Amino acid sequence: MNFLSSKKQSSMAVVGTLMITLGVERGASAAIFNPAPIFENAVSYSTTIPRSDGGVDAADIYYPILSSTDSNQNSLPIALFLQGALVDKSDYSTFANTVARYGFVVIVPNHIRTAISPNT
Questions:
Q1: Which of 11, 24, 52, 61 is most buried, by the most CB atoms less than 10 A from its CB?
Q2: Closest CA to 60 of 100, 110, 113
Q3: Distance (Å, rounded) from C-alpha 117 to C-alpha 119?
Q4: Would the pTM count as exceeding 0.90?
Q5: From CA 61, how far away is CA 49, in angstroms rounded?
């Protein structure tokens, strides 16, 4: 079944060729990727986070040191790292510090959960 007549197909081919030919002058350029962190330093502090059962979990929060010239001081994205079984939050300190230097506020809670009492 032929949906388009050969005349319509020919005119579509001509229009397509013109669009490609006229668009040749507009070359695409790739953005330059720089893998270096955005901020030179990050700092952290320890706090507690309340749980729904009334308890609290210890947590470390990492954030980049912003200069006075940074315009986005109040709009940093948050990254939440949840540690694995029997791993302390301090084991993530180097990684969390590095991620914070890329412009994130990183939260690493220390929630203890065991196979004996999985609901805590």
A1: 61
A2: 110
A3: 6
A4: no
A5: 11
